[in-house]
Amino acid sequence: MRERTELDEAIASIKRIEQDLADAVDLIDLGEAEGDQEVVNEGEETIRALSVEAARRQVETLLSGEADANDTFLEVHSGAGGTESQDWALMLMRMYTRWAERRGFKVEMLELTDGEEAGIKSATLQIKGHNAYGWTKTESGVHRLVRISPFDSAARRHTSFASVWVYPVVDDRIQIDIKESDCRVDTFRASGAGGQHINKTDSAVRITHIPTNIVVSCQSERSQHKNRATAWNMLRARLYELELKKREEKASAEAASKTDIGWGHQLRSYVLQPYQLVKDLRTGVTSGTPSDVLDGEIDPFLEAALAQRVYGGGGDVEDID
């Protein structure tokens, strides 16, 4: 039923665009016949708006991967640099949260480790919505921030790093078998807000998959049982994402595994001083308004990265033919 609903919506939107385009062309013809420039302008404005919508719909056709329609887990980890990098990790977490909210997605915090003075050391979000994983899957990598540090009394410019890792939520149709003997399960006391109970019991759960060294943790629930169940789901999702990566590498002969996510492999740079610029180092897409990007306006970067993954090369979505 979900697939049927998605197909119905897609077909209806295409038919509506076709009808609106025909109406706009008729309106322009009418305006030209009567010499009414305002009517012509109205028709042309409608066509421009339809062009933008058609381009957006075109990008959505790129989201045809095996797990693209699924919900997604998104992890943010601060890099070396103490408070400065931890504050940057918090800014990134907020950016993705704002982006998801703009799209009408639901965001749930699964794990949060606060920094010593400010910011966060790590966080895990679950973003729920159609194509949540498909839209965010190209965001895995290292993000670099250049700014005048608010934590430096000498007002010097600092460069900070944080890494993002995105993997799909695995639904019930996909079976992932995990040997419990391959895993180490640790419980610990949760940190952060949550009342007296969450801070007085070992309710948080961390699972380490020894063969792959994948580590997941959850502390969002008061119950250790619920946190354990969520952590197992996260591990299944990580192992599934790893398998998807292997298949993609085999098909495209491109190395895209997590081992490539290091401080020498920046995905995007955000420069706040001495000039204002956000640049994606893979696609060349830029923005001169970092404040808007950090407030969640990252669609141009996501669209270009998706287009590059499917078609190769850089360029904006309008370059797709």
Automatic annotation (TrEMBL):
Q: Which Gene3D superfamilies match?
A: 3.30.160.20, 3.30.70.1660, Release factor (1.20.58.410)
Single GO MF descriptor: translation release factor activity, codon specific
Q: Which UniProt keywords apply?
A: Cytoplasm, Methylation, Protein biosynthesis
* Modification type N5-methylglutamine: residues: 196
Q: Where is this chain primarily localised?
A: cytoplasm
Location of the protein in the cell? Cytoplasm
Q: Where is the Prokaryotic-type class I peptide chain release factors domain?
A: 189-205
Q: Name one GO cellular component term.
A: cytoplasm
Task: Please name the InterPro entries in this protein's record.
Answer: PCRF, Pep_chain_release_fac_I, Pep_chain_release_fac_I_sf, PrfB
Annotated Pfam families: PCRF, RF-1
Q: How is it modified after translation?
A: Methylated by PrmC. Methylation increases the termination efficiency of RF2.
Q: Which family does it belong to?
A: Belongs to the prokaryotic/mitochondrial release factor family.
Xref: NCBIfam families: prfB
Q: Which PANTHER family match?
A: CLASS I PEPTIDE CHAIN RELEASE FACTOR, PEPTIDE CHAIN RELEASE FACTOR 2
Q: What does this protein do?
A: Peptide chain release factor 2 directs the termination of translation in response to the peptide chain termination codons UGA and UAA.
For this entry, the protein name equals Peptide chain release factor 2
**Gene expressing this chain:** prfB
